[in-house]
Amino acid sequence: MNIVSPFAVSLIHNSAWIFYLLGGFFVYVSFCFLCRIYNIPDVKLLSSRTLVVIKDLSHLALIYQNRNV
Predict the structure, then answer these.
(1) pLDDT surpassing 70 at residue 46
(2) Least C-beta-crowded within 10 Å: which of 2, 5, 33, 61?
(3) C-alpha dihedral sign at 31, 37, 40, 44
């Protein structure tokens, strides 16, 4: 019989919000790309700004990661 430890259960419950956040972010990015494809101007501008923010955040994450090596 496989018994899950209470630590694993609390870890799953505490990290569940991360999965909700990632799921919502994925839906938002998918929506922005669809609006870009179908050429909806306001959301197209919003999606391009979102991509710039994502690129800047990933750049900052790389800088932080290289600094801690």
Answers:
(1) no
(2) 2
(3) positive
Helix or strand holding residue 25 (H, E): helix 6-37
d(CA 47, CA 25): 12
CA nearest neighbour of 29 among 68, 55, 60, 64: 55
Which distant-in-sequence residues (6+ apart) come within 8 Å of 36 by Cβ? 43, 44, 47, 48
Distance CA 58, CA 66 (A): 12
Tokens of residue 39, six digits = 């050429």
**Taking Cα atoms as reference points, which of 18, 46, 19 lies closest to residue 31?**
46
Put simply, whether the predicted model's pTM sits higher than 0.70 gets the answer no
